[in-house]
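Backbone shape codes:
===
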Amino acid sequence: MELSIREILRGFGLKVGPVTRKNFEARIRELVAGQATSMLSARPALKAEYGRLHKAVLAIVRDDAVCRRLMTVLAGAGPLVAITYKSAIDDPHRIVKSKARAVRAHAKEISIGRRTSRAESRWPATR
């Protein structure tokens, strides 16, 4: 949200500069001088909704043994990556070979939802 506000203001030639999260709203209000503060009023509502959704995801992952195991096996994988991976591989018995889609998949690839071709998804043979 902050980046969107920065980009909109930059289009009008107004630069926010380096500010902390605490000082962000005051700096924006200083720049716009009482005009167009609707995005600032939406910011706390979006932040509260994000917090509610984040807690819901954490509750789902906390109760799911597979997701907890994925977070320990995949380096750098958090709750969102674990639940995304589990939903992508809904039935592990459909995968004939483990190399077809190993648990070693890139966490970044999963988290951004990047689609890969069959050739890209195969792991190179290791010696």
Summary: Helices lie at 2-11, 21-32, 38-62, 65-73, 79-88, 107-111, 118-121. The two ends are 47 Å apart (CA to CA). The chain has a mean pLDDT of 76.
